[in-house]
Fold this protein.
Amino acid sequence: MKKLSVLHNTFFIERTYPKPPAKVFAFFSDPVKKRRWLGGDDVGFEVLAFEPNFKVDQYERWQYRFQGGLLMRTDICYQDIVPDHRIVFIYTMTFGDKRASSSQVTVELTANGSGTLLRHTEQGAFFDGTEPPEGREQGTGGLLDLLGKLLEEAP
Amino acid sequence: MKKLSVLHNTFFIERTYPKPPAKVFAFFSDPVKKRRWLGGDDVGFEVLAFEPNFKVDQYERWQYRFQGGLLMRTDICYQDIVPDHRIVFIYTMTFGDKRASSSQVTVELTANGSGTLLRHTEQGAFFDGTEPPEGREQGTGGLLDLLGKLLEEAP
């Protein structure tokens, strides 16, 4: 067995968006918007399955691959949802049959003039060197930037 | 609505035990041992329900109260299990109908001579001032001390 290890890493990202919290929240709660955001052409993964399930204590599941590579899974389980205000979830990433990481995420939305301040706190555990933690913060920042772009395009 | 807030808090606790990792792991995996440890007289809660379910992606649920007080729930969901080595889970605490916190825990067990080094890392999010984060580390330390006592008594 490869040597077991766990690296813990917490990061915090803020973004401001020109749309109100309900419009931002919709990208988490509405499966069509979420699919467009996290599984669309901008992200570049081939989505093989998406089972939305935005409810506390329930699992939402993605399966995807990148350029014909390894099957990857993201399994999301919601811990707390306060509509238009707060979403707390855990998500695991699995590469092939290897659980790579498990992270707890808190998304807080607050009205900021006519827009929204989004605060993303991610408390991660990375297993056995499968994935370096450093890339996660950068990747998440990119997804939050993409959310801003989609919000600007939205009616 | 009470003002929403989230406090994030991470703590790390180590304990050494005189029994090997398999004996320590059994207190997480064996429902009878777990019930004795976390729901026994030493802890002092009245356990109203315990639904063990030590499997990845599955929920294990406790309901209890303290001296006739508010109904409390702990819901545990396992993210990664490597027998005798590692357990990763999320757990939420709910007081009445109020979600108070959600935490990701990593328990790492390594052989230490004829005994075990246990490392507990807890990455918590505490909601709306329902529970101060400071007590959690102290409470967890007490439970890990109790585990040591039960391990010494075990055959």
Summary: Strands of chain B lie at 6-17, 46-51, 59-65, 72-82, 86-95, 98-112, 115-127.
